[in-house]
Amino acid sequence: MAAVAATLVVAGCSAEEAGEPVPAPNHYLSLGDSLTVGVQPDERGRGRETSEGYTDVLYRSLKDTDSSLRHERMGCGGEDTTTFVGGGIPGCDDRYEEGAQLDQAEEFLREHGDAVDLVTLTIGGNNFTGCVEGVHEEALGIDGISVDEACVADGLERLETEVPVIAERLVDAADPSTRIVGMTYYNPFLALALLEDPDASGETSLSARTVEILDQVNASLTASYEAAGIDVADVDAAFDGSDTEVPADSASGMPVNLQRICDLTWMCDTARGPDIHTNLAGAQAIADVFQARIR
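The structure corresponding to this sequence follows.
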């Protein structure tokens, strides 16, 4: 068979033209928010979709071992758990003939059955990104940044009630052979520590408060995914989110977790930032976590 295939290639004749069956393609379906569609700040700091998201990096790696694999890129910037289930973002709703992203994903999974090898899911972060106010105001300083606790409480409530629905519906729509992997989130707001007075004492700092919030977010996501039988890619661990040690050889004097945020996102970039999204190195880091979890 290998000799026959080689002869067909040399002759410039495809397997389909030769009457041989062409294998059906396998699919990788990526779902979620702006991280899944590679949103990056441009030279003016405006977010735009690129092919440098973690899903693109992961797809290129997976395609090396399965040349038939196709990437169905279904994510949309701005999606939170509520809009993922029910729609409501005009720029996103226009993409989904079935209504909302979850409806579209269910239709795709049912239509393609066991030809869907992998689903990755990144949702929930936008329940909270708007709860930290004033980060993007120029020359504002730490005194002008605050955490809206009512927004946090609402975001957590929606996370705890809607992620189990999302997980259950995806599992029900998918073929039993399809691998579904959700992720935890890194904490871009660790970068607030760069604006804070290191000698201040008393009340919890803003950066420390965001750590508390993210711990709740990731615990909720992990519990919901595992309850539905969905695997979890622990991205926060890969970003060393809990490592507050300052290495002895650190040139910046930053703790490990803050250095990772500066290295892997646009939060510390003075030209395009602060921006919560990963740069290409960060996208590679997230893709590596998924790759390891898949293996």
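The first strand starts at residue 27 and ends at 32.
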